[in-house]
Amino acid sequence: MAEPLSVAITAALDALGKTSSNGVPLLAGIDPSGATGFHLLVISTLVTPHTSPHPGALSTRTDRLILLSQPRSIDESYCSTSSDVLVFAMSVSEYVVQRPSGIHELLIHIGKIDTTGHAARTSTTTFIARSVVTGYLSHIYHTATADMKKTVHVFARAQPVYLFPSFVDNSSKRVLSDTALLTWWAKTLSVLPSSSRCYYVPNETARSVPSALRTATKEGWTWGLGHPQKTRAEDVLPRFPDDPIGKTMREHCGPNSTVEEIMEVVGLTGECSGRASGLFSVVLEPSAAVTDDGSDADAMPAADSSRAAYDAVERALMGGDYGSLEKARAATDKVLAALQEAKESGGRVYRVPVPLKVPPGPVEAIARPSGLVPMDGNVPEVIKDGASPIPSLGRGLIKRKAVAVAAPPSNAIQNLVKRKKTSESKATVP
Fold first, then answer.
1. How far is residue 243's CA from residue 154's CA, in Å, rounded to a whole number?
2. Among 252, 301, 357, 404, which is least packed, fewest CB within 10 Å?
3. Cβ-proximal residues to 274 (8 Å cutoff; 6+ apart), any chain
């Protein structure tokens, strides 16, 4: 049986926490008055038929919201919901696509990730974000059907707020420049077992991108969108909601446009003009076969209930105020309450502890209590040991009719505004 998501994230936290640029472990010397563990919370929509990212193919889609909260103290009230503070959030969409040829493919689109800046040790924020992303993708790698092609897609763009509001009032939250954000993603995706890795920065060339990004993509990365430039774009490039590639193909290019033409035009769209942004695509190596023992084959809730529950949790998350630690605690309580309501209405909700193994350092850390953390009536259920918060992928593909996509006017490209000079802006730390 494949490892649970919590185990994959724990392994990533442990591995990354033992390394640093100056030889001192990232987690060495954590103050024992702060928490040394997290709670992983996951809510997922039902697998439902969806317009395929590839026209003419059949597709299903599952959305997931992956959250990490951290108690700020280890004492008798360790499990009190009032002490939990959200420190990280990530929204992802998973598409299982069946091509007309019969080939199945898993497309993973990472929509947004964000941090609050309220981790017990703010210097570990970037490492926490990288651990969750790589842990999630490692879990996908080991649980998806072995013979299914798995591709990760990321559109990275600097903006002050992704999922947690009140960034301006939060002095604890770090910011990254455009270059630092793109470099962070390149380094994060480089640790995955992959057969190919591609990146493209609109309005730049492989030689004109900043040196930090060139260094991060020097080994194993290819410039471009991952396909021969003369290939018809509609045959090979997926289209995701709120993605500049999809917008370019829908609004500015005809059905016979090539990958090369898409690369030339995408930089003129509003999502990519005026600031640096990056498109990353990673094809994961084929994984070993996974033994499915049916442990995650529990009854599914009604599709509309699951979607409504997911949306309610997302509204609670993005409607909170995280400007200070006290406000973040109150906002976290509202998210936990929304998760509890989602669970009661049939939503797929999981909560499980994720231990943080602190290496020896100047300060001796207090060991985290063993076993699962008991819940009270205000918190979603804890999953059993060995159960996976994310079901095995690639099953239950639901057929639907292909959706025809009308070709945009031929003069759409000429109507685009002139390219603006790329400027350096700030982004919240992943």
1. 9
2. 404
3. 420, 421, 422, 423
Question: Encoding tokens for residue 357?
Answer: 């193994």
What lies within 8 Å, CB to CB, of 342 at 6+ separation is: 43, 309, 310, 312, 313, 349, 380
The DSSP code sequence of 342-402 is HHHTT-EEEEEEEE--PPP-SSPPPPPPPSPPPP-TTSPPBPPTT--SSPPSS--PPP-PP
Cα gap 138→168, rounded to integer Å: 34
> 57 and 106 in contact (C-beta within 8 Å)?
no
User: What does the angle CA 98 – CA 62 – CA 7 come to, to the nearest 5 degrees?
Assistant: 110
Cα 262 from Cα 267, distance rounded (Å): 9
CA dist 191 → 27, 134, 263 (Å): 20, 8, 26
Query: pLDDT tens per residue, the chain (430 residues)?
Result: 446 787 888 787 777 655 544 444 444 444 434 445 788 999 988 888 888 888 878 899 999 999 999 886 534 333 444 478 999 999 999 999 987 777 789 999 999 999 998 887 766 788 889 989 999 998 888 888 878 899 999 999 987 778 888 666 677 777 788 899 999 999 999 988 899 999 999 999 999 999 999 999 999 999 999 999 999 999 999 999 888 998 898 888 888 999 999 999 999 888 887 778 999 999 998 876 554 444 443 333 333 457 888 999 999 999 999 988 888 999 999 999 999 998 888 776 878 888 765 444 332 222 222 222 222 223 333 333 333 344 334 333 333 334 443 444 444 434 443 444 444 556 665 6
pTM of the model: 0.78
Closest to 429 in 3D by CA, of 242, 109, 200, 184:
184
Q: Alpha helix locations (H) across 162-237?
A: 178-190, 211-216, 233-236
